[in-house]
Write a structure and sequence with these properties.
11 strands, single chain, four-stranded antiparallel β-sheet, seven-stranded mixed β-sheet, mainly beta, globular
Length: 122
């Protein structure tokens, strides 16, 4: 069974940090681009960051540039999203997705995780 599982979410104070992980089971991520998306209550899903299968190309939403870093360890079949200087507006459910195109649009992605909640609050 092909599955993506996110972990690392939680409650953090403004200015704090979290590292999200996206682990694959049933398939290898090495051939896939990975995207991180988030959705807050009452808002549309938005692209946060993406990384190509080789890791050579990364993209970020303007709202997270300079604060978030995406990386991948193909040997561990895992992709990470390091989130620093977190703000209350970063509060959302974060999802990772695997696809064949490196894009910030969610439609082309084929496989999705169940999401992990990130809450930034004092």
């Amino acid at each position: 069974q092909l599955q993506l599982v996110e972990s690392g979410g939680g409650l953090v104070q403004p200015g704090g940090s979290l590292r999200l992980s996206c682990a694959a089971s049933g398939f290898t991520l090495v051939h896939y681009a990975i995207g991180w998306f988030r959705q807050a209550p009452g808002k549309e899903r938005e692209g946060v960051s993406c990384i190509s299968s080789s890791g050579a190309t990364t993209n970020y939403a303007d709202s997270v540039k300079g604060r978030f870093t995406i990386s991948r360890d193909n040997a561990k079949n895992t992709v990470y999203l390091e989130m620093n200087s977190l703000k209350p507006e970063d509060t959302a459910v974060y999802y990772c997705a695997a696809g064949t195109i490196t894009t910030m649009r969610w439609v082309p992605y084929d496989y999705w995780g169940q999401g992990t909640q990130v809450t930034v609050s004092s």
